[in-house]
Amino acid sequence: MKKKILILVTEAAYPKVRNSLKDLKKYYLFDFYISDLKKNVRSVFFFKIISNIFFKNEYLCCLDFYKDKQIKDIILFSLIKNKIKIIRPILAPKARHLFKEKKDYFYLHKLFKQPKIIINFIYNIFKKFIKHDGYILAGSYSKRDVKNNSGFIIYSHSFDYENLKKKNLLKDKKKKINKIKKILFLDEMMQHHPDYEKNNLLVPINYKDYLNEINLIFKKIFLLKNFIPEIAFHPKSDKKYRSDFRFVKKYFNNTIYAIKNCDLVIAHGSTTIGIAAVFKKPIVLLISKKMKFTWMEKYVKTIGKHLNCKIYYTDEFLKNINEINLNKLIKSNSNNTSYINKFLSHPKKNRKYAHLWSSFHNYIHNNDDS
Fold this sequence. Notes:
alpha/beta
């Protein structure tokens, strides 16, 4: 008889998590608990979980993808903690958590204007009492709670890496040498990025100025004889946003294809940089001078260190756009092993476990107390 696993997940992450778990359906049944559910998605109810835990306890363990817990989620966690093992998968590690706003006068002023920030601050105090029994890590770039963890750790790889494996895109194939070079910009919808808005991180450049800087870069590349500017849009961008970018070939919901077939990748801090790293593409990171001395500049420079790549201010990059300089960037060596190990595939992962959940299944199979 198949055993049941409880999955705690947000509505936004639900499709990705559900699809990734398909490989385990022959071994387990899954109950999804979606605390912030708004759409008509099948989800088990709070009281049904409590009833199951205390009267039948059909659950083998719990996979907790839900990082930003509300009060009722913290209560649920506390109630089931002593009944089953709760494992925290970190399968899309990011460096963004390091870059919080300074707790200065302006921050305190904003606290009084935005009560939501105060509520989040209180939630964060409660979250410190949340202790998982173990973690599944997709990279060695661990957060503080993982480093202080006394439980078990399972090593695996990220959702993006799994996607590339399943599409058989990790094998090195000889690329055709084309006279026309493709320069791809990875859009992250900077002024409206969900992560920045959720964490109240102010992007230090207004949209009009940002758009002008990026479009000037596209136009200058467009005017070169043997180069094509391209942009791969953020999956949550809308038609109006996408229409604001000019002199550029556009990709939407086809980012992997665009990265695989380009010659040079330009970005700020988009997480899809990881795909470019796997494909061994030369990468250039851009920072606007209006981002100087801000959390955004620090973030981009940190990613640049992990990637071991060149970083330019946008005006500096614009001045240097010509065939000679672009060809030099295209031919530059891209040693992205460090980035891959930190954010895409843990270096301690057992290579015989091919799929994302293989090492988890092996651990559960060998440590099943029932």
